[in-house]
Amino acid sequence: MDIPSPLSLKIAVERWPIAGSFTISRGAKTEAVVVVAELGAGKAKGRGECVPYARYGESVESVSAQIEAMRERLATGLTRLALQDAMPPGAARNALDCAFWDLEAKRAGRPVHELAGLPAPRPLTTAFTISLGAPETMAAAAAKAAQRALLKVKLGGDGDPERIAAVRAAAPSAALIVDANEGWDEANLAANLDACAKAGVVLVEQPLPDGRDDALGRIARPIPVCADESAHDRRSLAALAGKYNAVNIKLDKTGGLTEALAMAREAERLGLAIMAGCMVATSLAMAPAVLLAQTARFVDLDGPLLLAKDRDPGLVYQGSQVHPATPALWG
Fold first, then answer.
1. CA-CA distance, 324 to 122, in Å (whole number)?
2. Confidence of residue 1 (pLDDT cuts 50, 70, 90)
3. Where are the domains of the chain?
4. How many angstroms separate the CA atoms of 102 and 296, rounded?
5. CA–CA separation, 226 vs 257, rounded Å?
6. For residue 48, which of 2, 66, 177, 196 sits 20 to 30 Å off, Cα-Cα?
7. Does domain 124-322 have CATH number 3.20.20.120?
8. What per-residue confidence (pLDDT) applies to 120?
9. Alpha-carbon distance 62 to 275, whole Å?
10. pLDDT for 252 beyond 90
């Protein structure tokens, strides 16, 4: 349902404290700062949430300005499909694209999955993130989460073999994913992959920096390797051939659910497994990603679990199971 109509726009910046801190190879943070776009048509309203990411040159100010720049075009009938060409991939387009989907669902009285021609969503098992830290700190965090089915372990510094061994010892039954966030180099790549293999890790995300990852195509990979920072939208997939086994699709990178669904179809055509990922954000950002994640091999939608408090209403998490959104939240 992509019918042009005048739309109003509201933009809000929200700050959500993180429970403790969230630490990766590029640094730590204690709050999630999100930008929410709300589109209105009469009494119907649709919302979308995004996370500006400095790694991609984004800030709260730049993303808010990008969304604001669409106000006049929205008022004169910009549609969701036209939005894909009107804005580049990234957080700003994600907020508007997801707001469009939510608004379309509210106006049609039908859930987004029906409008997108998707099966009804089911609950999924999500990873739970263990932040980067000293081996003993990470082991303590892993022990507290050891009952979860899937843990995502942040690495990316000297001593990573000790870190992953400590986490495995603390959580012997959990499946482990490692995310190095571009923190390794060619010199330590083989040793770190070997340490992960010994720990029974099932997937390693983005071990080398984007643009400096050719070594992945020249070595025997003992574990499947997943592209994250090296993958954004469909156009980025061809360059992954021979280096990666999987791709992490995040709505803040693709610029919304519309492109994410198309990217997933293209990834499958190219033989790449799919991981559905997220930034640290509230349930409003996770809700559309739950639809994308229905066909994913790996699901990492634990953003709200890392917050001190989620928005209400939010997604229902039962242990490691995340349930689809209700219309009161999104879609």
1. 7
2. low
3. 8-113, 124-322
4. 22
5. 20
6. 177
7. yes
8. 97
9. 28
10. yes
Mean pLDDT within 34-49:
97
User: 134: which 2 tokens?
Assistant: 């000293």
The secondary structure of 194-244 as a DSSP string is HHHHHTTEEEEE--S-TTS-GGGGTS--SS-EEESTT--SGGGSGGGTTT-
Distances from the Cα of 315 to the Cα of 183, 282, 311, 312, angstroms: 32, 9, 9, 9
Q: Supply 143's token pair.
A: 């022990």
Q: What confidence tens digit (pLDDT) does each residue in 63-79 have?
A: 999 999 999 999 999 99
Query: What are the pLDDT digits (tens) for 42-69?
Result: 999 999 999 999 999 999 999 999 999 9
25, pLDDT greater than 80: no
Distance CA 158, CA 191 (A): 11
User: Residue 273 corresponds to which amino acid?
Assistant: A
From 152, 154, 243, 253, active-site residue:
154
Backbone angles phi, psi at 214, to 5 degrees: -65, -25
Could you confirm whether 250 is annotated as catalytic?
yes
* CA geometry: angle 231, 237, 238, nearest 5 deg: 140
Token pair of 319, please?
Answer: 């242990």
Q: Is 154 a catalytic residue?
A: yes
154 - beta bridge partners? 179
User: Do residues 302 and 127 touch, judged by C-beta distance below 8 A?
Assistant: yes
Written as one letter, the residue type at 227 is: A
Task: From the candidates 106, 243, 250, 253, give the one annotated as an active-site residue.
Answer: 250
Range 270-285 average pLDDT: 97
**Cα(107)–Cα(48) distance, rounded to whole angstroms?**
16
SS3 category, 292: helix
Rg (CA), the chain: 19
pLDDT digits (tens, 9 = 90+) for 157-179: 899 999 999 999 999 999 999 99
DSSP 111-134: -HHHHTT-PPP--EE--EEE----
The DSSP call for residue 44 is E
